[in-house]
Amino acid sequence: MNAESLKRKGYYAVLWLTSLLFFAPVAWIVMSSFKTRNDILAVPPKLIFSPTFDNYLDLLDRNTSFVLQFANSVVLSLSAVVIAVVVSFLAAFCFSRFKPKGTNFLMFILLSIRMLPAPAVILPVYLMYANFGWKDSHIALILFYAMFSIPFSVWILKGFLDGVSVRFDETGLVNGGSWLHVIFRVVLPQLKPGLIAAFIFNMIFVWNEFLFNFIVGGVSTQNIPYALAVGTYSDGGLNWTFIATLTTIYIIPPIVFIYLFQKYLLAGMTFGTVRGEV
Amino acid sequence: MSVSFQSLTKRFGADLAIDSLDLDIEPESFTVFCGPPKCGKSVLFRLLVGLETPDSGSIILNGTDITRIGPANRQVGYVPQSFALYPHLTVYQNIAYPLTLARRPKDEIARRVDRAAGILSITHLLEKTPDLLSGGEKQRTAVARGLLHDASVFVLDDPLVGLDYKLRERLMDELKSLQTELKATFLYATSDSMEALTMAERLIVLDKGRKVQDGSVETVYREPDHLRAMELIGFPRANLIGGRHSSGLLEAGPFRIPLHRDTPGEVVIGIRPEAIKLGGNQGIAASAEVRLVEDLGSEYVVYLDSNGQALTAAYPVGDSPAPAFQSSQGFAVEPRDIVIFDAGSGARIGRGAA
Q1: How far is CA B311 from the centre of its chain?
Q2: Is residue A205 domain-resident?
Q3: Is A73 part of a structural domain of the chain?
Q4: What is the DSSP string of B314-354?
Q5: For residue A33, is it within any domain?
Q6: Chain A closest CA to B18's CA: distance in Å?
Q7: Contacts across the A-B interface (CB distance below 8 Å)
Q8: Which residue of A16, A89, A143, B21 is 20 to 30 Å from A95, comparing CA positions?
């Protein structure tokens, strides 16, 4: 065995170890969701156990708001992100193509809203929503999430749009296309990786959002993070079976999304600069 | 359709890209614009197509002022310098694009795409997507798309640049016959001497956004009005030698030419390679060492070094045998074959002799 292949094996060993280390809590949660309460808390932890589906049946059976919470999570994130991506695409198109004076400054201002920690804005937002009578309203919450998702999407999409040559637009215009034609039929189809990247990033943000849902939302808009926070101590002590089961269900959609679109995610993290790889 | 530019001016910041250009182009003509890079030919075409707005002046298309009309409503076919093929469409869909936008019936589109693809020999590529094509194939697809526009004015911005020699020669013929067949007005930009000489009915030489010569191929070749015209048109390239004149004598490289002109100053003299007669003795004689001989089949191109001044001579094979490598050769140039240009403005001053 030569030194080169030994080095390679070493790399893989380290990579595997790191991955396992990071995956361990996820594995623990997923495994726990199939264990009884006693098995979860057993010392030493049980790796071999007889799996049970009681926790899942319990969740659907006893916890009457689970379906509402899951549906809320899906509806809130999907609609907010779709609105955000559509608005951001048009905004990014203008920034990229018409380059208004101070584009860089405007882009910075746009992103600065995300530089504030959420607790710093929660109070004014709460007062505003309370006064407008927007508390516990799906539409109001969707608009808030969309507003919060737009800056980052504009940044991602502008990076991708700058990579789509203006020559494409020109060819469309010269051959008799309108601006709408250029935007939606010429540029949009070439932006698929950017749209998917923006979509996933914001999806993750809204999917995981707890604070605003808890304070600005209400009973009818509660999502899964809300349910986890509220349900954890619901039966006196720490309700491990509930936490494990709900968390397992909760992480499936993002994992599926990310697995399917992971190459776009990388492109999105670099604002489209590795477009060639996609 | 006729095209006319009236005192057209376009600036990019401080750069003058088009400098009050006046030009009338006859309907159904084939006009070639020739000039060094950045001479303004692409900008002129972009102005005509509507992708740039002039700072002043106007563009008249068949009697209608189109200066303020958007590109979509100008009805000018455009083959851009960059291919800009849509990656999400197949070659067929790319070529059909102008017709699809114009909502033409499907069978008409199919017929016209097939024909254009046939002429450009890309029929076998129609189902592929552009990322699978070579550079030349992309270029031909872009040409086909540009020509399928329902226009009677076509603007071709250096469409054959970089294609291989054989294909280029064939496409030059095809473009010419297509123009006759469509009865369309073609404006064609190139920096290639061969394309200009082969295709132009009218040749316009541009330099720094100005028209420096305008005429038939013969006129531009035989009577260049401007340094750029002499430099760009003709192969092998003309010899251009910097020099200066004062007190009735012009000195440039190995040449001493009597010149009667009042203002002394810097000049550039131009001599066509075929005007340098090896072994000749008529006119101004000098000698040089042979550095390289290229046999082009029908002619020899001889690269000479005359006291540090590089010169190119060309003469038909058969007139005399090829000179030996590194041999010393006497040569002569008739004074009337020497064209003298002002070094500053590039304008022609005169010839070595009337």
Answers
A1: 23
A2: yes
A3: yes
A4: EEEBTTBPPPPTT-EEEEEE-GGGEEEEETTT-BEEEES--
A5: no
A6: 20
A7: 52
A8: A143
Question: What pTM was estimated for this model as a whole?
Answer: 0.81
Answer whether residue A30 is part of any domain. no
Residue of A181, A177, A170, A178 whose CA lies nearest to B98: A177
- Is the CB of residue B230 less than 8 Å from the CB of residue B348? no
**Per-residue pLDDT tens over the stretch A109-134:** 988 888 888 888 899 999 999 999 99
Asked if B51 reaches chain A (Cβ–Cβ under 8 Å), the answer is yes
B-chain CB neighbours of A177 within 8 Å are: 72, 101
Over 90: is that where the pLDDT of B303 sits?
yes
For A253, the token pair is: 């959609």
State how beta strands B210-215 and B202-207 pair. Answer: antiparallel
Q: Do A173 and B78 touch (CB under 8 A)?
A: no
Sheet holding B255-258, edge to edge: B255-258, B249-252, B239-246, B265-271, B338-342, B348-351
Residue with tokens 């999806």: A203
ipTM above 0.85, yes or no: no
**How do residues B160-185 score in pLDDT, each as one tens digit?**
888 888 888 888 888 898 898 888 99
Predicted confidence (pLDDT) per residue in A157-196, tens digit: 998 899 888 999 999 999 988 999 999 999 999 898 889 8
Closest CB to B84 among A165, A177, A189: A165
Q: With CA atoms as reference, report the closest residue to B82 among B24, B159, B192.
A: B159
Q: Determine whether the interchain pair A171/B149 forms a contact, defined as Cβ–Cβ distance below 8 Å.
A: no
A168/B84 touch (CB, cutoff 8 Å), yes or no: yes
Burial zone of A277 (CB within 10 Å; 0-12 exposed, 13-18 middle, 19+ buried): exposed
- Give Rg (Cα) of chain A: 23
- pLDDT tens, position by position, B98-130: 999 989 999 999 999 999 998 888 999 999 999
Shortest Cα distance, chain B CAs vs residue A110, angstroms:
30
Please indicate, yes or no, if residue B234 is contained in any of the structural domains.
Answer: no
B80:A168 CB<8 A: no
Quote the domain boundaries for residue A218: 56-277
Which chain A residue shows the shortest CA-CA distance from B96? A175
pLDDT band at A274 (very low <50, low <70, confident <90, very high): very low
Percent of chain A clearing pLDDT 90 (strictly above): 56
* B76 and B182, same domain (yes or no): yes
The helix (H) or strand (E) run that includes residue B212 is strand B210-215
Partner residue facing B98 (CB), from A165, A176, A189:
A176
* Residue pointed to by tokens 């993002």: A254
- Domain with residue B188: its CATH number is 3.40.50.300
| Cβ–Cβ below 8 Å for B86 and A167 | no
Helix (H/G/I), strand (E/B), else coil: B106: helix
Cα gap B275→A225, rounded to integer Å: 88
The answer to whether the beta carbons of residues B210 and B226 sit under 8 Å apart is no
Joined tokens for residue A40: 């979860």
